[in-house]
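Consider the tokenized backbone below.
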């Protein structure tokens, strides 16, 4: 996928960020101070940059994306903001460039529905430490059309996400609704 200025504007528009508030999503996780976090499908990095504040100087955030433009955009933003503990990383659907069991927490915010198959889930599991957490935030297929997010037919039900994650060693700890348009599921790596 090739991303341009219009895509950045679409991902960062206020209406979308109101439906996917970074702080509220990060509040769903255990305390992040000093942790290693991977934002898989980071896009423009708006959640990753918030996570970098939460992990603090002793922690690290890897902002992983398959788009070279998004990675370049995050590199530029990182420099502009002087964020030392965030590292944008170029990946592919079947390879996240991180060592095995190197991450405490992984996020998939508004991108699980875009995974072409389960390779990205398998890679996320590979990078997580035992008992690591994986937070999936995605669009409710029952929510009405007309809000930012994928077409209704492209959205995945929670049960499908849980099934895909279970195949790769994740157990569902809890879940809920972020709002009427977006749900969240928190998994633990077994």
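A designed sequence for it:
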């Amino acid at each position: 996928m090739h991303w341009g200025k219009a895509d950045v504007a679409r991902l960062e528009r206020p209406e979308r960020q109101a439906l996917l508030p970074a702080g509220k999503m990060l509040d769903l996780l255990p305390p992040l101070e000093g942790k290693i976090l991977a934002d898989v499908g980071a896009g423009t990095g708006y959640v990753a940059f918030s996570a970098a504040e939460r992990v603090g100087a002793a922690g690290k955030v890897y902002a992983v994306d398959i788009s070279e433009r998004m990675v370049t955009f995050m590199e530029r933003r990182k420099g502009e903001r002087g964020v030392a503990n965030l590292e944008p990383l170029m990946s592919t659907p079947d390879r996240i460039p991180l060592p095995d069991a190197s991450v405490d927490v992984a996020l998939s915010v508004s991108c699980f529905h875009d995974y072409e198959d389960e390779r990205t889930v398998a890679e996320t599991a590979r990078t997580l430490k035992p008992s690591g957490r994986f937070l999936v935030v995605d669009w409710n297929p029952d929510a009405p059309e007309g809000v930012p997010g994928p077409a209704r037919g492209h959205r995945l039900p929670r049960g499908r996400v849980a099934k895909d994650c279970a195949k790769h060693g994740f157990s569902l700890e809890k879940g809920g609704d972020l709002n009427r348009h977006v749900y969240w599921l928190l998994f633990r790596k077994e």
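The beta strands are 36-40, 60-65, 86-90, 103-109, 128-139, 170-177, 182-189.
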